Amino acid sequence: MSLTMQGDRGGELIPFPNAPVERNAEDAGAVEASAALDGELITEAEYQRSRVRRLAESAVSRLPTQWQTPESARQAGAELVNQALLVPMRYPAAVGRGLAVSARAWWAWVRVTDFYEASKAADRLADKWQEIAVVRRRRGVISLVGMSAACLAGMVAELTVGSLPLLVTAGAMSAVLAAAGRSREGAGGRSTRLGSRSLAWLMNGDHLVTAFRDAKLIGRDESLMLVKAPRHDGAGWALTLDLPPSRKASDVIGKREALASALAVDEVRLIVERVRGDNGHAGRLALWVGDADPYTADPIPSPLASAPSWDLWQPVPFGTTARGATVNLPLVWTSLLIGAIPRQGKTFVARLPLTAAALDPHVRLIIADGKGGKDFRPFEQVAHRFIRGSRETDARQLIRVLEECAADVADRFDRLAEMDDELCPESKVTPEITRDPTHGMPLTVIGIDEVQNFLGLDVPLDDDNPKGKKVGARICELLTYIAKTGPAAGYSLVLATQKPDAQVIPDGLRGQLGTRFALKTMTWQASETILLGRGHLQGRYGRLQAADQSQGRRPAAWCRW
Question: For position 30, what pLDDT does the model report?
Fold first, then answer.
């Protein structure tokens, strides 16, 4: 029901939409007022300036690609000036090449080359020879008559109106010949010259085709089809294109470095992705080229830094891509493995999901800092169990904690099996179960930094049996059980280590860590060991990641905070 009030002058006062409505005291508790809207009052001049700015941005977006930003416009203008200065030297050569092309085309027409070759290929040249000879004579006569008529017309024009028509006609013919001979087909390499290649002039359709040909991604007679024209998207250029038939997007992804060279950019600035789904196919690519190296920008503060709390059932904000898209990391139902060489950020990455777990009051947090520093000291105040250091006593304490966790996992499954199907429909924990303290099944996150210091501890578990099981083997055994069985009971692992090969983390444990993140490594083999856990590459994408890492760079598809 709408509310109207009569003012002093008899007018109708209509309340602002969604504003709180004044009511009588007896009605105050019956109806809850809606929240007021926040707004900012601007002047007419400010409104006009913002409107003009939006119109200007819209007009700039409709300009050709190379004129949409000041930097690219300067580069394109410099390229045009260079081309204009070289016209007097290139024009005569182009006219000469056009004359040769035209002469070859005319001779092929007179000699009926296409019909001759077709008849020869079909073994019917003898049957068609008389017909070919007649066409040749006819076309020869036509050519002779045409040239004679052109010469006679030129003489008549010279005698009647002067040389101006002949000069205009010659200029137009030279322009046509120059257009026909503008490219050097079959010519050798060009000589070196002073200058450098730039991206701006390569971002239009024609030069993009040239870049793909230079990178050996398409053939000389093949072209590209732009699905979405190049446009400035965020801090770079974005476009979507279709490759020629039989060309695969995976091949282009595998040769990203060659394409980056052809586009005159660092491969860190180039993102090449296959378009999937109903709007994509095996030959459709989405390209994004950054205006600058996205990893030289200032770090982006994590939303966790200002969040008063966090629900761990929701994905954890893990970073942003080179294009600025947020990367969220699910932590429930999976375990995380982080690998890199020392001093490359493993600890900082591991603290992101652990911080989200610490911000959730319904989560039980267990921390083991194998490095023994103070990186995880703030977690000591909220952790259910906290271990600092990787000495033998610390490792034995970790065994006791993990044995406690393994027993809790088994007990949880026993209790889940007895629960009602409405409360526990799939024999695994639910948000309601983990948040109800009466069940005693909170989400539990076990974070271990420098886990190799614990797994590699070659100390007998039983002092009375020196040749028996080692401390490191027992820790690995417990972690493997929790990684295999624990996710359905609400347990997750976050492990950070250096090169996690079979000697550091056995395959039985590494194979259960479904989410993996690699920072800088010294070789592509080490990167591949972290991501895939094998000694050889399985696909070209891993080679791209490893190639970036071996040069000390991070792949453009990875994220940062």
Answer: 46
